Amino acid sequence: MTKRNALELKAVKKNFGRAEIIRGVNLDVHEHERHVIIGPNGAGKSTLFNLISGRLKVSDGSIKLFDKNIHNMPAHKVNRMGLSRSFQVTNLFQNMTVMQNLRCSLLWSEGHKYAFWKSVMKQDRVTEHALALAEELNLSSQADTPASLLTYAEQRALEVGCTVASGAEVILLDEPTAGMSRTEANDAIQLIQRMTGKNTLVVVEHDLSVVFELADRISVLVYGEIIATGTPDEIRNNAAVQEAYLGTEVH
Amino acid sequence: MATNTAAGGASNLLRFWPWVVIPLLALILPQIFDSRHGITLLSHMGIAIIFALSYNMLLGNTGLLSFGHAVYYGLGAYVAMHVLRMVNDAGGEGLPLELIPVVGAAAGLFFGVIFGSFSVRRAGVVFAMITLGLGALVHSSSLMFSDFFGGEAGLFGNRVAAPSLFGVDYGSNTNTYYLVVAWALIAAIFIYLLRKTPLGWMANAVRDNPERAQFVGYNPTIVRFIQFALAAMFAGLAGGLFVITDEIVNDESVGQIQSGIVLLGTYIGGIGYFIGPMVGAALVTVLESSLSSYTEAWVLYFGLLFISIVMFAPMGLVGIVHTQYLTWKAGGWKGNTGIRLYMLLAGLVGIFGAICVIELSYHYFRSWDPSAPFGLMGFTVNATTALPWLVSFGIAIIGFGLMLFHGKPMLARRISATSEGGNA
Asked: Where are the membrane-spanning stretches (chain B) (predicted)?
């Protein structure tokens, strides 16, 4: 079974001044897989996400999205090539309602670009799509609530919705269950699985029970290097991983 | 949820009544203020309204704080003036007067595209500083290149020596005023509709969260750029109309004061509301022309008004009215309407006292002879004696004191009492 690589990182390095944060990461993410990146605090997981999504420029190495180089492209271009992301800290259009957030996320992928000669509310496809998304996110009853008034879990759900809405095939989620209770986290994982069925998913996660439930494959990032990649079972039984990460974090 | 529906209903109301009330006012007011001065003032209001609406496309909608928006207003005016003079020189043949503002708009758009291409790369302080610099640059150029800008004297034109599309005689101030109204209405409709387009939505999105906007595929710089160029176009339109009403344009129209006034007017009215800039611009125009004939201290009052809005009512005058309206609609005035009116009255008394103090100070420090009697609120007083000072300070202190230390706690007690009663 040969799978196309959705994402391909080759010898990616990033340093801030003399501090090397990412020290030569090689990573292949297959199409349609759910790939989880774990690692101790300060390992560079968020930096890696920022490099992939175009928020930061790489110091060295290459990043390919479906065989096209995307490193050092501005974020909106990376997004148009089919990659979207959520953030560790909730990052929505806070003053807008749920529906407005969803509509804004759909405008580009529905091809409306910078149009200033047509009304947003008259674009029926955008409306239908946004309503369907709100339904899937269980936010229909809150459709006209400003994002800033939603509960934390609802905000995270909306963010997943907006990330998916932008039409990206590859989706990066940065700690989607951070700060949630057990039940909220379970709901969030189910929501993510439901919303991203067809997509390639790359997730940074701390919560190991979430990790093993969600992942097809896991990569372990320690001090800016990937020390192991494999199925959940392989990772569980990997001695180096146990020493570097599991052994110290899970008591 | 209750507040949400209230907000929805109120914003619907706010959305539609201005389209009836404001044009009606625009038609009624010239019947009341039918002096030459009154009509000119109303024309200036209309122009200021277009200018402020265009400014709010930047500040309110896109979150861009510009200190140099008069650049596009002024350059639009100069180019329109040159075209008007060409028409004059051709003996009144050529572009009809009604379309002269379009020339201003085209010029505004042209310079908006040029200056916008490098100034909108970053929002916030960087943008503000660039616009400030551009404002100073263009203003000083206007005094240097007198061939185009006419030097300090400026340029003159003659609106009567130009053809009219509809055979209207623009020798009459009133007819010119109706031309301003027509253009203001057209501009307001377009600016309003622009807010509903994908560009308008993404302008709000970029204002709230440029990073998120990138991750749904939009380049914030392009969004700001288009919005900026369009705002400059409407500013140019306002400039073109100014050429028609005043038949003169000089360096003031590209100057920093003009840029400052549109910022103040827009903010005083309320940047979060479509009609905010209209109210603000109209008010500022009136203050500028009328207050200055009553008192030397009008700039000070203007500044105090702005500071108090920034500090106490950042949503502007329209915001104050809207908030009170929402409270009233949600039943928040029940049982305390009297207290609210009492606070308003006390506040007005306080302001009256403060005005007396300011007028006394102005007379005392600025007059050749401070002991000369002068008229203060209908009384003739001597500013070197203690009595008027004591009375003025007394009124101010009593007014503000009653509002803040009697009315306000009373309102708070009443509200908490009713809400407890509601829970019980």
From this structure: 16-33, 40-58, 70-87, 99-118, 124-145, 176-194, 225-249, 261-286, 298-321, 341-365, 385-405
Q: What is the CATH number of the domain that holds A147?
A: 3.40.50.300
Which residues on neighbouring strands pair with residue A221, listed in sequence order? A226
Q: Which domain holds residue A208?
A: 34-55+74-249
Q: Where residue B31 sits, what CATH number does that domain have?
A: 1.10.3470
Radius of gyration of chain B (CA): 24
pLDDT tens-digit series, residues A60-95? 999 999 999 998 999 999 999 999 998 877 789 988
pLDDT, tens only, B359-418: 888 888 887 777 777 777 777 888 788 888 899 999 999 999 998 888 888 888 888 877
User: Last residue of a domain, which of B256, B290, B315?
Assistant: B315
Residue B28, classified by CB atoms within 10 Å of its CB into exposed (0-12), middle (13-18) or buried (19+), is exposed
Q: Which of B201, B216, B228 to mutate to test the interface with A (most CBs of A within 10 A)?
A: B216
Asked whether the beta carbons of residue B215 and residue A119 sit closer than 8 angstroms, the reply is no
Alpha carbon distances (Å) from B213 to A81, A144, B202: 15, 20, 7
Q: What is the pLDDT of residues A32-43, one digit of tens each?
A: 899 999 888 888
Which residue range is the domain that position B295 belongs to?
Answer: 19-315
